[in-house]
Amino acid sequence: MNHFKRCALALPFALFAAQAAAASYEEGVRLKNQQQLAGAAEAFAEVAAREPGNVLAREQLAIVLGWQSRFDESISVWQQAIALAPGKADYHLGLARVLYWKGDRDAAMQAVDNALRLNPDHADAHKLKGDGQTELLAAGDTFRAAAVEQLKSWTERLGIELVASHSGADA
Question: What is the pTM of this model?
Answer without folding.
Answer: 0.66
